[in-house]
Amino acid sequence: MAYVLTLTDSTTTLNFLDGTNYKLEEGGLSLPSPTLKQVWGGDNILRDGADLIESRYNNRTITLRLQILGSTDDVLSTNVRAINKLLDAAAIYNTTGRGANVYLSLKLDAGSVTIFIDVISGTLDLPDTSMNYILA
Question: pTM for the full model?
Answer without folding.
Answer: 0.82
